Amino acid sequence: MAKSAPKGVLTITTRNYSSWSLRGWLICRMAGVAFSERILAADDPNARAELLHLSPSFLVPKLEYDGMEVWDVLAIAEFLNEIKPESHLYPADMATRAHCRAISGEMHQGFVNLRSALPMNFKGHFPNFKIWAGVQGDIERIVSIWRGCLRAYGGPFLFGAAPTVADAMYAPVCSRFATYDVRLDQDVAAYRDHILAWAPMQEWAKAAQAEPEELEELDVEF
Ligand SMILES: N[C@@H](CCC(=O)N[C@@H](CS)C(=O)NCC(=O)O)C(=O)O
Fold first, then answer.
1. Long-range contacts of the stretch 142-147 (C-beta < 8 A, 24+)
2. Residue 221 lies in a domain
3. DSSP character for 18?
4. 168 and 72 share a domain?
């Protein structure tokens, strides 16, 4: 029997720089939905116009699924959680689920200093990068979130043995910590390394390394 076409199309952009694309893609992978990728070239002058056409918010990632359209990473996570509850994108326990949503929301709307000063860049490596006070504050808050989760739920993912939406939300931070050689205590460094070694992250990182372009103008939050 012929293999049926994927039901979903995920629009993303550069793998090296686009942290939101990475989050959306990881969540789709974790949900186990069949999807193909539409990749917008970040250096294509027409990409913005195409993006406007494809995504009412101008933003990626955007998921089209069975005639429905959803954009914004957390909206995509909530949508996939509804259609694929068996994939356990969120923890089973209600209080733990609330915790997972809270720290995912904190990443979604916060850490502006970290996001602007340490843009995701899988191909880059900047040892001895100067960490300013505002960024240090964001790093300390992230470390405290991770440590709280690892102690409460036992790791190796934030909410225990299996990955949840929160791990996808913080995965680009793990990549940033490696890119900018952010010094971490052993417990949180182990979490960073676990995420970097996680099979879908490895797959993404490999494809990011293979991207041809070095886009200086994208060395900003993206
Ligand atoms: N909060 C949004 C952020 C999405 C976002 O900022 N996407 C960037 C790419 S990583 C984008 O589409 N930028 C397009 C542009 O600036 O033209 C989400 O959760 O999806």
1. 142/111, 142/114, 142/170, 142/173, 143/184, 143/185, 143/188, 145/103, 145/106, 145/170, 146/170, 146/188, 146/191, 147/187, 147/188
2. no
3. -
4. no
Q: And the tokens for 197?
A: 């070694």
Res 45: pLDDT: 58
The CATH number of whichever domain residue 100 belongs to comes to 1.20.1050.10
CA of 60 to the centre of ligand 1 (A): 5
Q: Are residues 25 and 98 in the same domain?
A: no
Q: Is 218 in the pocket of ligand 1 (CB under 6 A)?
A: no
Residue 2 domain-assigned (yes or no): no
**Is 2's pLDDT higher than 70?**
no
90 Cβ inside 6 Å of ligand 1: no
Asked if 124 and 199 sit in the same domain, the reply is yes
Residue 210 counted as domain residue:
no
For 38-83, the pLDDT digits (tens) are: 999 876 656 656 665 666 667 899 999 999 999 999 999 999 999 9
| Count of residues making up the chain | 222
Atom number of ligand 1 nearest to Cα 20: 10
Residue 48 structural domain: 9-87
pTM over 0.85, yes/no: yes
pLDDT digits (tens, 9 = 90+) for 103-156: 999 999 999 999 999 999 999 999 989 999 999 999 999 999 999 999 999 999
